[in-house]
Amino acid sequence: MRILLVEDDSRIRKDVATALESAGYVVQCQSDGEEAWFMGDTESYAAAILDLGLPGMDGLTVLKRWRAEGRDFPVLVLTARGTWSERVEGIDAGADDYLPKPFRMEELVARLRAIIRRSGGQANPLVIVGDAELDTRQMRLSVHGVPVNLSPQEYRLVAYLMLHKGRVVSQQELSEHLQSVHFERESNAIEVLVGRVRRKLPIALIETRRGFGYIVDDQAQSS
Ligand code: CA
User: Fold this and answer.
1) pLDDT score recorded for residue 163
2) How far is CA 108 from CA 76, 102, 105, 155, 165, in A?
3) Which of 52, 95, 104, 105 is the most exposed place for a label (fewest CB within 10 A)?
4) Fold match between 2-119 and 126-216?
5) How far, in Å, is the centroid of ligand 1 from the Cα of 14?
6) How many whole angstroms from 178 Cα to the centroid of ligand 1?
7) 212: CA distance to ligand 1 center in Å?
8) Beta-sheet strands, E only, within 57-144
9) Which helix (H) or strand (E) holds 167?
10) Cα 93 to ligand 1 centroid, rounded to whole Å
């Protein structure tokens, strides 16, 4: 899942990016408000982490413009400690949650995971599709109660499809969410990844819709 991280303090930005990457997310960083607004307006993200004090355009304006333009990905706002008015303004502007600085990385990752889950209509950390169970806290997939040994990239693929169950997800969307900007994009990378995951699963969880993409849904057939 791809996260937009907007923070102009390079030390915080680096620490947060590292924490998110080790939690299995693909992170795109931005330090300028106006650039961040443009990225959120034109690219697709599972969520954004948004600092309020930014050069170029302040975070509240960025958020208000995204919401006014119908961009509805969840946003976690970072505020300076003790500024309750910023928190209120942030929530009024359409933030899904906020976190005062300084914060613990564990808390940031937990809150991010929660807003992503809620935005997908999933209040529960467990996502169940047929005989497959995804535990988004442990980052583990089980089938018939038995854990499946997946690489981080394979896990991200399954997690993205399961969190969007019932919807066809295109290869383009998958590659945007699974690959970091540093990762070399090969045209058949997603097909290869899907093939690898399928060979590891004892059930036919991922269905191909030729020409459209892939879907995971509750009607998935056990095999
Ligand atoms: Ca700042």
Assistant:
1) 87
2) 9, 10, 5, 21, 26
3) 104
4) no
5) 13
6) 28
7) 41
8) 75-79, 97-100, 126-129, 132-135, 140-143
9) none
10) 18
- The CATH class that applies to domain 126-216 reads mainly alpha
Q: What is the Å distance from ligand 1's center to 137 Cα?
A: 29
* The pLDDT of residue 204: 93
Distance 6 CA to ligand 1 centre (A): 9
Ligand 1 geometric centre to CA of 24 (Å): 25
Tens digit of pLDDT for each residue in 176-189?
A: 887 754 455 567 88
Whether domain 2-119 has CATH 3.55.40.20: the reply is: no
What's 93's DSSP letter? T
CA of 50 to the centre of ligand 1 (A): 9
What is the Å distance from ligand 1's center to 78 Cα? 9
Q: How far is the CA of 117 from the centre of ligand 1 (A)?
A: 27
Interval 111-146: pLDDT, tens = 999 999 888 766 677 889 999 999 987 889 999 999
pLDDT tens digit sequence for 146-171: 999 999 889 989 999 998 889 999 98
Residues 6 or more apart whose CB falls under 8 angstroms from that of 38 comprise none
pTM beyond 0.85: no
